[in-house]
Design brief:
The structure is a single chain. Helix content is 16%, strand content 39%. The longest helix has 12 residues. It is α/β, with parallel strands linked by helices. The chain is globular, with a radius of gyration of 19 Å.
């Protein structure tokens, strides 16, 4: 009798919360030029460049990890929400640097958020780190 893959007890194991996701470790953003985009994320968002390999640049700031991936699919709404202490301050800082915004800071059911374009016109969202889902 074959044991099911991933079941060390031969079918007698009771699952609880083991192996379930607890957080997002990293996310990727498609970009057309990893060097140009890495400069943007480093200079505008304070991300540290950890290294690069095979058309990817690995970046980090605090617990936020980004992988910039060279791709023809650049220019999307990433659906990514970066947590910041103040979306108003992020907006002001990036406006001063000439970054184009999709939306100005506004209160939403999830908290204050704003959205901007990166160099590939990917949409990046930022939200107040103290936000909570309140529907």
């Amino acid at each position: 009798m074959a044991m099911p893959i991933g079941d060390p007890q031969g079918g007698l194991f009771e699952y609880t919360v083991e192996g379930l996701p607890e957080s997002i470790f990293a996310f990727s953003i498609p970009v057309s030029d990893v060097s140009k985009s890495a400069e943007f994320y480093r200079d505008m968002l304070g991300m540290q460049i950890l290294g690069s390999k095979d058309g990817r640049v690995y970046m980090r700031r605090g617990d936020c990890r980004i992988v910039l991936c060279e791709s023809a699919a650049a220019g999307i709404d990433t659906g990514v929400y970066l947590a910041v202490d103040s979306p108003f301050s992020t907006h002001r800082r990036l406006i001063d640097e000439g970054v184009e915004f999709v939306t100005d800071p506004a209160r939403t059911p999830f908290g204050v958020e704003t959205s901007f374009f990166d160099p590939d016109r990917n949409i990046i969202h930022v939200i107040d780190s103290q936000s909570d889902f309140k529907l």
